[in-house]
Design a protein that fits this description.
The chain is of the alpha+beta class. It folds into 4 domains: 95 residues, Uridine Diphospho-n-acetylenolpyruvylglucosamine Reductase, domain 2 (2-Layer Sandwich), CATH 3.30.43; 119 residues, Uridine Diphospho-n-acetylenolpyruvylglucosamine Reductase, domain 3 (2-Layer Sandwich); 113 residues, 2-Layer Sandwich (Alpha-Beta Plaits), CATH 3.30.70; 105 residues, Alpha-Beta Plaits (2-Layer Sandwich). Helices cover 33% and strands 21% of the residues. The chain is built from 14 helices and 18 strands. It has a 7-stranded antiparallel β-sheet with strand order 15-12-14-13-17-18-16, sandwiched between helices. The radius of gyration is 23 Å and the shape is globular. It starts with 5 loop residues before the first helix and ends in a 12-residue tail after the last helix.
Length: 470
């Protein structure tokens, strides 16, 4: 094998791996499925040299060692719902897909934990927790497609961060395969464990650049016995901030979501998407407030009384209260319709930024004006989780295909304003390659240097998802 050229060596090694793991575990060249060529970032797809689909950590380790011997860069893949090309391959790479590493391994009622394989869809975990009498609070619009390993790798946020925190807060232990093929199993179930460095945090949020997560221990919570929701209309952003303060103090631990929609978002979903919301148009802001409790007989009247008090004080211009779980779901569809913006708006660019809550409307006002003035025909709409400092926006020029959308100009305007206002270029979606050039707008030189030091220590050959994040 020493006399082989590098391409011959890689073909030989991949063939040997296919014989060890099975023909369905290693797909090469023309057999590579289209799904493994890209994520949801709408960028141009790249076909990897091969896709390896192990069923356990040992198979992942074998795949990594094979790639290292063949000098082939490799990228981990899960549900491929990322928006920053963090899981997208480059030509000639190998994709290590966890799509066959699916399943619930254990639910431990005493420790209130669930142990799962990394390729398991988020919705599967939610349903398993529910059937066991528990609640797993991480929730994203892509719940049916995204894999929990990818959720960890990007430290996903979602709809209930205001109460339960980011994904990082929901993880107790994990198993990860390092870039040299070492399997590190630390399936800790202990909430309190200060025995040395908490190594799991190296891998959560690192976007598959420091290791490949294969199994994870997640925290479970008591199942909510009551869910209340209201769609509120308010006159201005100061009223939104006042409502957030009132929700935190008046609802306390019941508060589970606080979703804010600017009027431009409202206009798009009603006029273009055909949504029929429970409150009328013409208001300054719209807020979806959700609360979850443990006793319907107590919680629902408390929620109703809280809203009535706000109405009497003049804080709310209008409000609709869900009278059933079906109506609560309908309220959430008003907020989740953004997942269909591709069909509603056509080609567009989506942004996910972090800002101080008090400055979000200032940002939205300035950003909308700067985009319209700086780019001919540019439109934008704004919405977000707000209660946890996360603003989303989409921008587009009508009639232009995605490859002709002036994304570079949009990026410069949006991220320049984010830096000026002391925010983050990524609140929950990650960096990947699409935001890599803007990382310095949110992280200091010393922070980026330390990130590079960690990457070099764990992956000195730069073969695991190289060129991503830093």
């Amino acid at each position: 094998m020493d006399a082989m050229t590098l391409p011959e060596r890689s073909e030989h090694l991949l063939g040997a791996l296919q014989r060890r793991l099975g023909p369905q575990a290693v797909l090469v060249d023309a057999d590579v499925p289209a799904r493994n060529c890209n994520d949801w970032s709408a960028s141009l797809p790249n076909r990897p040299r091969a896709v390896i689909r192990p069923v356990d950590a040992a198979g992942v380790a074998d795949a990594i060692i094979t790639c290292r011997k063949a000098r082939l860069p490799f990228v981990p893949q899960g549900g491929l719902t990322g928006l920053c090309r963090g899981a997208a391959p480059e030509p000639g790479w190998v994709a290590i897909s966890l799509e066959r590493m699916v399943g619930i391994e254990e639910i431990d009622p005493a420790s209130a934990t669930i142990t799962v394989k990394a390729g398991t869809p988020l919705e599967t975990i939610q349903k398993a927790a529910d059937e066991a009498g528990f609640f797993f609070p991480l929730d994203l619009g892509s719940r049916g497609s995204c894999a929990i390993g990818g959720n960890l790798s990007t430290n996903a946020g979602g709809n209930r961060v205001i109460r339960y925190g980011m994904t990082r807060e929901l993880v107790l232990g994990l198993e990860v395969v390092l870039p040299d093929g070492t399997v590190m199993t630390s399936l800790n179930k202990l909430l309190k464990n200060n025995a040395g460095y908490d190594l799991k945090h190296l891998f959560i949020g690192s976007e598959g650049t420091l290791g490949i997560i294969t199994r994870v221990v997640l925290r479970l919570f008591p199942k909510p016995r009551s869910t209340m929701a209201a769609l509120c209309a308010l006159k201005d952003y100061s009223a939104v901030v006042a409502l957030l303060d009132a929700a935190r103090s008046g609802l306390g631990p019941l508060l589970s979501a606080f979703e804010v929609m600017w009027p431009d978002y409202w206009d798009v979903i009603t006029a273009r998407a055909g949504v029929r919301p429970p409150v009328g148009a013409g208001h300054g802001f719209y807020v979806l407030v959700e609360a979850q409790g443990t006793d319907e007989s107590i919680d629902a009247p408390r929620f109703q009384s809280w809203l009535e008090d706000l109405m009497e004080r003049g804080l709310l211009a209008d409000a609709a209260v869900a009278q059933s779980l079906a109506q609560t779901k309908a309220f959430w569809e008003v907020r989740d319709i953004c997942a269909e913006f591709g069909q509603v708006l056509g080609p567009h660019n989506a942004y996910d930024i972090g800002l101080a809550v008090g400055r979000m409307d200032e940002f939205a006002t300035r950003c909308k004006a700067d985009l319209a003035n700086g780019i001919a025909g540019c439109e934008s709409v704004y919405y977000g989780h707000i209660g946890d400092g996360n603003l989303h926006l989409v921008s587009w020029v009508t009639g232009l295909p995605i490859e002709r959308q002036p994304k570079a100009e949009m990026d410069a305007i949006i991220y320049g304003l984010v830096r000026e206002m002391g925010g983050s270029v990524s609140a929950e979606h990650g960096i990947g390659t699409l935001k890599k050039q803007w990382l310095g707008h949110a992280r200091s030189e010393a922070e980026i240097a330390l990130m590079r030091t960690l990457k070099a220590a764990l992956d000195p050959d730069q073969l695991l998802n190289p060129g991503k994040v830093i």
